[in-house]
Records
---
Amino acid sequence: MAIDAATVRKVARLARIAEPEDRLEPLAREISGILAWIEQLEEVDTDGVEPMTTSVAATLPMREDVVTEGGDPAKVLANAPKAAKDFFVVPKVVE
Amino acid sequence: MRGARRYLHSMSETTNTKLIRGRTGDWEIVLGLEVHAQVASNAKLFSGAAVGAGAEPNSQVSLVDAAMPGMLPVINRRCVEQAVRTGLGLKAQINLKSRFDRKNYFYPDLPQGYQISQFKDPVVGEGEVIVERDDGSTFVVGIERLHLEQDAGKSLHDQDPNATYVDLNRAGTALMEIVSKPHMRSSEEAAAYVKKLRTILIYLGTCDGDMEKGNLRADVNVSVCRPGGHDRFRETGSFSHLGTRCEIKNVNSFRYIQQAIEYEARRQIEILEDGGSINQETRLFDPGKGETRSMRSKEEAHDYRYFPDPDLLPLELDPAWVKAIEDSLPELPDAKKARLQSQYGLSAYDAGVLIIEQDKADFYELAARGRDAKLTSNWVTNELAAKLSASHQDFADSPIGPGAIAELVTLIEQGVISSKIAKDVFERMWAGEGAPGDIVEKQGLTQMSDTGELEAIIDKLIAENPGQAAAVKDKPQAIGWFVGQVMKATGGKGNPGVVNGLLRGKLGLG
Amino acid sequence: MTVLTDLTLKAALDGLASKSFSAEELTRAHVAAVEAARPLNAFILETPDKAVDMAKASDARRARGEAGRLDGAPLGIKDLFCTEGVRTTACSKILGDFKPTYESTVTANLWRDGAVMLGKLNLDEFAMGSSNETSAFGPVVNPWKIDRELTPGGSSGGSAAAVAAGLCLGATATDTGGSIRQPASFTGTVGIKPTYGRCSRWGIVAFASSLDQAGPIARTVEDAAILMTSMAGHDVKDSTSLDVEVPDFSQFVGKSVKGLRIGIPKQYRVDGMPAEIEKLWEQGIAWLKEAGCEIVEVSLPHTKYALPAYYIIAPAEASSNLARYDGMRYGLRVEGANLTETYENSRAAGFGEEVKRRILIGTYVLSAGYYDAYYLKALKVRRRIADDFDQAFGKVDALLTPTAPSAAFGLGENADDPLAMYLNDIFTVTVNLAGLPGMSLPGGLDAQGLPLGLQLIGRPLDEGTLFSLGGAIEKAADFQAKPAKWW
Ligand SMILES: [Mg+2]
Ligand SMILES: [Zn+2]
């Protein structure tokens, strides 16, 4: 399925990536090309095939309910672009 | 899997229609709730950081919670167990195979850029909750599902005029999202449902139910339709009979739930009556204004792109483990209510009032053993409950213990004190003056049953009021005046039964 | 005199054990080689002081008789592995100067066994690429050079180039669609992507969680086996980590392969494949026959659909995995007028073109209305591909294929054509989708004098057989060629 510039704009917004207007068309063309190639998957008969999300033939391992981490805000904030009073500081969120 | 889709209740116990009058006719409200209940656990759902409010900012945060590069989730067994326990308590289907999905969206208090939740295959399927109304009648709310998911962190908007502060202590805490069917028909029913659900969770020990801390909060789905729409929905299962719903997010008190619903239903009716239509949207309740308003920022382009979390494998439960959890369930509110009715002969209403708080029911049972069940129930649910609530205390930390109430009831039963005197004794107990027996003794509040002493008082009364005494012959109810006078003379201590008997004899009423 | 940087890992460990040289001497020789090789751009962060300190500590351990399996061995670490206190970037601007406060499990395992870190190695940004050209630090140059500069392949281009050029005795790498094996093929080195779940993913910057797997790149099959033995192991911090014993993989090298049945998948004979690669494959078959293997033709009918399925699954997972790079808690932040703009600016400035393209594709295929047609379909095709292998492994013990459809190509030659670039992984990506172990080892040189690799594919957890077969091919091929030192 070919996608257009408007779709690229929408998807870029969803992905929170600023794409300048003049990049939308070229991106739409590139991505459409890739999607067209991907669409050969339609040739594969997958009726009744169970989707495969992992190659691990095991079930979810569980941890015990024990506190083993935390207590070190400095470690959590060590790489923060902005922090104050042990909080992350981010642009004002308007609800 | 447990085949537990058991609707045991007759139609008489379904919900009550409460109509709202509009300009163009009547409307009915249809309500479905998504309750987020914080799982009682030590550590978070997918990390080893501690759970709990009140800690220093970012001090209960693991590298996983902060979504550092390369960090991976590992599920907490206790949280799964709590979800299963809750499912069993809701008489719901336990899905032995479930899985976790990612719900993708950007928000500063959502470090991963996605919430790990269960979208397609939740751990718990359909169940039901029996809910008591204020008048003691009951109705059934169907449970659609219960799933496990991560909570987000906290954004603080008041620390800085130009910035938001983010604390990730809450990020990654396990939540159970309990989704009801749209089975509630009034704000009272919605509040009663949350109240009952909260009671069940507290009995199960799976959530502390602290709504003030936000550990239990509700998303309320409100729609309105013309009368009969909901019945047709219940008959056919088709949502087409219902109106478009709006979801009011994160309401965290019974009062706000009711206010939000009342406001929202009115708002929708006004729009519809003006010929408009309802936008399916997410709204926020503003307790200050008592209004709901649209959350535009969240509304814009929400496409959560759910997909199975590739960092996690399918969650498979051992049926023996589920069975062991089931075997360890405590007596739940409905069972306790039934037992209180049969064991103590209480009415459904009284039993219902007692079981809504586990501590209250436990208190009652300790106090009532071998005593007048109804009388004990009244003292527990009226006098003591009122005192506790006025002083913001719980039955668990009541300054008057069940033994003291038992003693008080015994004094009444044995005729040592009258009910009226008992109120005085109770006040003194509350004031910390000691055990009821000691108070009665010290204050000389023992009921006068000594016939000689009472006879002297009565004889004197009749002698001083011959006219009144004569009148009683024609008008037997006038005996009340004499009873009152005797009580006055005895300072309320005259045993009413004895006083009555003596008066009847002396006044010639046989 | 021995040139310390020419030694195999095995020979170096033997030399350390016999006290022919110290870990400090060995390390200093490699530190010097790293410095001299800067034109290759293989290392994007050199940690010589740390290396020498670690080497001295190793010598002290050895003096106390406490030397571990890899004690004193200088290694390079792909910059996708988080290293405590040492800048980790995934070769993306978005991570800025990110310094992890933690150590990845795989690298921690290496340090536990006494290895020495020389520094961090270049890669395609977030491991997305097949030529190392998407790196924010610029491409790696393949030490194998002809008339022009060549790519070492990708994404583990820095790892492969460093090992081929003698800058380290071995390197960590990761493989999501071929990122260990294709660079190994392009540089005449040995690389193995173990069974999914063999190596912990904890602390490795994620690209596509269900496909990512760490493994070593080394100069010999035995060296790769030694490194694998240290890197692998169950990790309770990774829910997809396999709770299985890790054998000493080096035991398998040199074991007889007589009687093993080797499958030759006919679908790997693709149109336009250079004759030399076809010839090498035939040569590989002949070597294994001579070693006593039985050759069986097998069919993997869904092979051609592996790449398109991969280019849905990997970008989908990546679009979500990379959402955490948002400029809020670490890494690059480019402020905008409001929160949304800050997100958008940070991510636009922080991610390179290929990463953005994949995030957009991944976002699109997961979005409402397209999930079933793309993502779900790809997961079903993935199952078909895995089933093909299951069937084949009913008949054979391992498969032999070429690693890549070409030898190393010139830098910039495929840069403008994403599809042409994606085709590099045509033979390797099936293995990731099925979660199988796959090894690439050099089979010979093409007419230009560039190395070509052969790939061995095994049953889940049967890396041992791959090491035995790899050892047999290595012995028969007697690949001694080395890139001429031009840097
Ligand atoms: Mg909700
Ligand atoms: Zn939720």
---
Amino acid sequence: MSPHKNILLVDDDADFLTATTLVLEKSGFTVQTCMSAKECLAKLKSTRPDLIILDVMMESDHSGFDLCRELKRDPDTKEVPVLMLTAVDQKYPLNFASAAGDEAWLPVEDFIDKPVDAHVLVERVKKLLRIE
Amino acid sequence: MTGTIKKTSRKHARIVVMDSDKDVLKRLTKSLGEEGYKVDNVEETSKMFEKIKNEQVDILILAVDSLDTTGYELIPMIKKMNGLLPIIAISADDSIQMATKVREQGVFFYAMKPLDMKEMKLALKNAFKRSIVRQYEPIITQKKRVVRKDFEEEILNLTEASKILEVSKHTLRKLAKRGELPASRIGTRWYFIRNQLFEWLRVTAAGNQKNYGTLILETMDEGVAVVDKRLKIVSCNSAYLQALDVPRDKIIGEYCYRVSHRSMVPCEETTCPVRQAFKKGRPIKSMHVNYDSDGREHYCDIIALPIKDKQGNVSQVLEVIRDSTEIYDLNKHLNWITNFFAHESRKTLGPIMMNISALVDNRLSKTIGVKKRNEMLLSSLCSLKLLYDMIRNYMISYKGQNRTIQCYKKAVDIEHTIFLPVIDELRPLFCKKNMNVETQIRGDKAVYCDGDLMKIAFSNILNNATKYGTEGTKIQCVLTVNHKGFEFSVLNEGIGVPRNKLDDIFERFARFDKLGISGTGLGLHVAKMIAEMHNGTIRAEAGFFIEHQPVTYDEFYVNENLCKIKEKNIKRFARFILTIPSGEKGKNSGGVT
């Protein structure tokens, strides 16, 4: 089992949050969830997660891109790795920059296409958190 | 003017005589030849038609008794070929019936055999005069009267004709004088009929590639222009003029960028397909967005094709403009739909995949208890239902748009074949959100409607209430059925509907940002479509719960006491009411508006 690592899961799909939280918790992580960018920014003031899993196509106030840009700009959260979830078929990080409409796009640490297998997600999370 | 014709008539009038009687032919040829007419004899119908079609014939003398079949039957066919050709009918049959039949077909003169040559000569003279006048009548009247726009296009002077044919005025005049080209002279000027010119071009094109090219340009639907190295337009077709809405004389010799972009400077070499085609010597395609006078966007495909000289250098570029706005719009919509469905399906599949893959994962599944396992399966089932509904709703709305959906009405027991089965089907959804469905049923008459479609409408309305309802609350359904039809209302506590969106919510793909809820914006739209197919209605009501009673926005805001309550602190509700009149037996309707 992994040492206690905190993951912040941001997605506006309640069903996905429930399923993913369960999978991550059963894999030994502590999971906090939020359903909007606003909620996420508020939560980050009090907690410092080891990893942020972020959905790119949130329909509420901010898109995942905007939120991610904000996180990477903020010196407090800059170092926290971000795993981006997408429901758009993107294979290369370069395309990502243009999809975000930002030349100076700071790439995220990793990204996964939705839908995703439970064990694939756990593997990727472990890799990012450097857990054997 | 008549004088000119008189002077030349004896020399040029060409007469075709069609008669099987050789004696008559001989006499006519001799006698008319003396008068200066050029006479061609034919004995067969096919030859006569050939001559009328391919040669300049001024008058036809037709023996209506010369054939086995009655000769006058040929007259309408001749008139179809050349409506202006005067026909002099001759016959040995002096019956009144024959005369009537021939005159009915409309001939210039009807003469009896044996022919009175004096009479014939007079008839020929007048026929020829009329032939000439008729042929050039449009020109004469047009030049005399105020210029009419449609005529302007038809009649060309020497300068205009030389531009179209791309030959010098001198050559054109020479050709016209020699009679090699259809033209007419009024005073000292030459006039040409546009259609005749193109017809002539078509016939003589084989040996003259340049003119052939002009003709091809003219027959194309796309706007086409030839641009030279200085970027000046050398030639263009009518479609090009139409596309840019400019007259021909303002285009030829003008810089292409001034005409097409209304710009005073040439476009960048890298973006201009014409300049690229000059530079690279191969066809270049690009897309331009033009704006018409109404400010609408027009997507134009521009194809620049290089024209090379013998040395292989690009001497000119053919610029083809194709308005592809319709295709672009369709494509844009198709793209949008595809992306929308790809995204929605992936999103819906997300939790299903996560749950099922966790359940089959050896290590993970060991840690999941029975209760959790059931929850995960239920959640997956609900997501699958969502996916299925999305596909079904899209198909119905698509069919509705194309008017290919049929509505088969028959007597339906709304309560037992629609209402209760739908609630059963949706039970997993209610269960997942821990929602309770309260039903109230009044009356039990059968209603004429399409049961399958109505089931979908019920399902969509209830689904909507579950999706946007608060967890652990109840959904109140009331079904009232009587001989006039039925009313089905569904009320749920939840995020409600914004006051200004009560009508918009039925629009196709209408979605409002709602946290944690995914919707495709199709369910209610389809419900409305089905209601309209049954001449029924669906409407939305929304407002607040005051002491457990629903109070609509309208009732709420007019009540001073209620207005004092902070909106944030009150629970909201949404209610959808479907009203369907009972259809008539045997009356089915297809399509929706």
